[in-house]
């Protein structure tokens, strides 16, 4: 888990993208706790796959996400990891201009 000391506009926008996609799944996923718990049961054999704190930090642009967690989060969001990555790259590049 890599923490950023300097607030990054790109990370904040990327975090908002993740949060919007989570909430778009339906009201049963609006809270982070329910999202993690429900997806754990539905997709990951009831195993811990991400902590509440880590998801919060990702959605608020405080942490980068590892490749392993990114793929699991993409699955939980019902997104193709490649398509989601392309969205992230576009946000990152547009924030750098």
Distance between the terminal alpha carbons, to the nearest Å? Answer: 27 Å
Q: Which regions have little confidence, pLDDT < 50, spanning 5+ residues? A: 1-6
Q: Helices and strands: which structural class?
A: mainly alpha
Helix content: 55-70%
Q: Main beta sheet, described?
A: none
Shape annotation: globular
Number of strands: 0
Description:
The protein has helices at 9-24, 32-43, 52-59, 67-76, 81-96. The protein has 97 residues and is mainly α. Helix 1 runs antiparallel to helix 5 (81-96). The model is unreliable at 1-6 (pLDDT under 50).
Quickly list its features.
mainly alpha, 97 residues, disordered N terminus, 5 helices
SSE layout:
Blueprint: H1 9-24, H2 32-43, H3 52-59, H4 67-76, H5 81-96
Care to give the gist of this entry?
The chain has 5 helices and no strands.
